[in-house]
Amino acid sequence: MKKLFLLAFFIGIITAFGYSYWKTNKIPTINKPKNKKLAFSIDAAPKNSIKGKIESLSGKVKWESRTATAPSEIIKSVIIQQGETLETGEDGNATIIFPEILTINLSSQSKLSITQTLPTNFVFDQSNGSITYEKNGQTPISIRSLHLLTAMNSGKIILTIDKETAEITISVKKGSATAAFNDLENLSNVVNIKEGEKFVFNDDTREASME
Description:
Order of helices and strands: HEEEEEEEEEEEEEEE
Largest sheet: 15 strands, mixed
Structural class: mainly beta
Shape: globular
CATH class: Mainly Beta
Low-confidence stretches: 2-10
Radius of gyration: 32 Å
């Protein structure tokens, strides 16, 4: 009996010691970080982007919203924002106004994508037609047209794309602009265009001239 009592006594001490050690040295629980939801939304443009308005239109004009899968014809003024596209038909014309920043006039058979309209920089992608841009503020304005990038410094320009001849022309009516492109040898070229000058760029040969 005495041996059984001593055995039970030692087992009790070991159990108590083990519990005390586990309690003071137990492995901490690792909390997995929660996945943060991204603020990006297809439905809405960034909160700080600036919206414009299709102020006037005539003839066939199509507008593709951020959530649309194809452009639809419009017959009245609508708000246009970053991530949307406007194009005109054979008899179509449209004017987009970003108050105190920029006025854009699309002639017939023109297509323009509104790539970015943040207060720090406006970026457009013109893929066809003849479009007039008139800068009214200090916000930097950039226009991509095929393999040519144009920065409006000030004033008013007319940018025309002729897909049949692969020629892009920039006519500076007021102020100045800067054109940049890489030639077929991948060398960078930058050309300053002054008021009254006409810049001609061949998108196939990646060559440019001034008239």
